Recover the amino acids of this structure.
């Protein structure tokens, strides 16, 4: 069974850097074709795709946020990380990670972690 | 960037009724790489449909997807109480950004 669990700070200050972690189980981050996405949802708003990392370390980013995002993984620890710099109150959202296979949309998702940006 | 526009914003229906949700793309979706998700408050989104019309594993057959190019539809043939939720479409073809629609809320009338 594929499971993903997000973790990270619940509150960050404006201009700070956010790092959220996705801990996965039921699959290997090095398995051919496997990817992990990060997606967020501001309160009361729609879902927004942020970034994706594949098994071979190929990375894709939302063009509008690319300058602020870094996605990495630690295969040995079954973790995927998303770093977002220069946080702003508009970045307040629930951050989700999700598993996908090449050519498929995100399938299994985590429950999400709410991050609030406030001074 | 492909913009997805979902309609209606809210659908008020009774259990047992048929729900028809629309997702329109600003340009053709490559290889009909269009997915549908169900999202309930406090839960992880659930994948329903891939490739515009293929039900994901474990999804009841009352859910069906159709369409191609720029116009896509999710149909729920007979609403069950657990189907009242927000539904999102996602285009995942071509290069990023992969984009979601703004959602359709299906509420109990």
């Amino acid at each position: 069974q594929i499971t993903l669990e997000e973790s990270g700070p619940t509150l960050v200050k404006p201009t700070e850097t956010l790092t959220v972690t996705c801990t996965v189980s039921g699959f290997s981050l090095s398995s051919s074709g496997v990817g992990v996405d990060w997606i967020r949802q501001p309160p009361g708003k729609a879902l927004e795709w942020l970034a994706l990392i594949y098994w071979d370390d190929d990375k894709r980013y939302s063009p509008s946020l690319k300058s602020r995002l870094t996605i990495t993984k630690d295969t040995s620890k079954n973790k995927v990380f998303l770093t977002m710099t220069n946080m702003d109150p508009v970045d307040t959202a629930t951050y989700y990670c999700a598993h996908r296979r090449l050519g498929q949309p995100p399938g299994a998702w985590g429950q999400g972690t709410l991050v609030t940006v406030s001074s | 960037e492909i913009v997805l526009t979902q309609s209606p914003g809210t659908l008020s229906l009774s259990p047992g009724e048929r729900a028809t949700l629309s997702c329109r793309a600003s340009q053709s979706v490559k290889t009909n790489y269009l997915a549908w998700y169900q999202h309930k408050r406090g839960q992880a989104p659930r994948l329903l449909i891939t490739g515009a019309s293929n039900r994901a594993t474990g999804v009841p057959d009352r859910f069906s997807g159709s369409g191609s190019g720029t116009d896509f539809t999710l149909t729920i043939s007979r609403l069950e109480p657990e189907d009242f939720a927000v539904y999102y479409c996602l285009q995942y073809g071509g290069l990023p950004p992969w984009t979601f629609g703004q959602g359709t809320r299906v509420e109990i009338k």
Observations:
- The CA atoms of residues 11 and 116 of chain A lie 5 Å apart.
- The beta strands of chain A are 3-7, 11-12, 18-25, 34-41, 48-54, 59-61, 69-74, 79-84, 93-101, 113-117.
- Chain A is about 0% helix and 50% strand.
